[in-house]
Design a protein that fits this description.
single chain; Rossmann fold; 7-stranded mixed β-sheet
Length: about 270
């Protein structure tokens, strides 16, 4: 007998299935990225100019920017993620969470001095992400998008064992050279330039390296929040995680991760500019 059809899962929203694990295990961002973004935008001491965050998640970046007393609106489409973001932002009355996608958001035209996205810009519809950001930004307002990128996850022995654990699955394949991974989102540069809505000069590129060590359970928790792993069926994911656990335990029970936070900053042209 065939049971009821299961609802289709949208990959960009599966993080909400494990929102509490996401909040506990996903890393934050270096404070330097906040300094760089606000310095570029000229908002270091501005508490009145409107700022919007795209895809706030549980507020990992939100709290860093809210702590600078910005007038911040955080957009997050997942109800469970938005609820945790509100809790995390409780100490900051200057920040509000709006349960909405960037696509559905209806901002006042040219009212924002900064629109930023941490770990989320690639999920936004490419047909409208730059057009809508430009619509929201005042002339010379800043668009800032950034990601944490893993460039190394342990020594060669662990890397070999992890690749064997994944087998034919595409997740976890380490096919890019370190330099390529550090610039893994350089497609943003081409998209910004092609939009013709932002300064004709190339976007400013930021790179901040840092490290974090995960014990075996923490590493598996982190993987459980990644959308490609979440999209696996439960049995496949369980078998994969058993193999990953064995690989990490056989290599000291920890994964020492080298991260680079990579960011791209640009300024909106005036509305009348081509």
């Amino acid at each position: 007998m065939i049971g009821p059809a299961q609802p289709l899962r949208e990959q960009r929203l599966v993080f909400g299935e494990v929102a509490h694990i996401y909040d506990r295990q996903r890393p934050s961002y270096p404070s330097e990225i906040v300094d760089d973004v606000l310095g570029f935008a000229g908002l270091e001491h501005d508490t009145t100019t409107s700022v919007a965050e795209v895809g706030a998640g549980t507020g990992k970046a939100s709290v860093l920017f809210a702590a600078r007393e910005l007038a911040l609106t955080c957009l997050e489409p997942s109800p469970t993620m938005a609820a945790i973001a509100r809790r995390n932002l409780t100490p900051f009355p200057n920040a509000a969470v709006e349960e909405a996608s960037f696509e559905d958001w209806q901002p006042a035209a040219h009212a924002y001095g900064l629109v930023f996205a941490a770990q989320s810009w690639h999920w936004i519809s490419p047909e409208l992400r730059y057009e809508k950001a430009h619509h929201a930004l005042r002339a010379e307002g800043t668009l800032a998008v950034f990601w944490n990128v893993i460039v190394n996850r342990g020594d060669d022995g662990l890397e070999r064992d992890l690749n064997e654990a994944y087998g034919d699955l595409s997740q976890g394949k380490w096919q890019l050279a370190q330099a390529e991974r550090a610039g893994a989102n350089n497609w943003v540069i081409g998209e910004i330039e092609a939009s013709r809505l932002f300064a004709p000069a190339p976007p400013t590129v930021l790179r901040h390296p840092w490290k974090r060590t995960y014990e075996t359970n923490g590493w598996l928790d982190l993987l459980s929040t990644q959308s490609d792993h979440r999209m696996l069926d439960e049995d496949t994911r369980a078998r994969l995680f058993d193999r990953i656990r064995a690989a990490v335990d056989a290599n000291g029970g920890r994964v020492e991760v080298d991260y680079v936070t990579v960011g791209y900053l640009t300024r909106a042209l005036r509305q009348e500019d081509p």
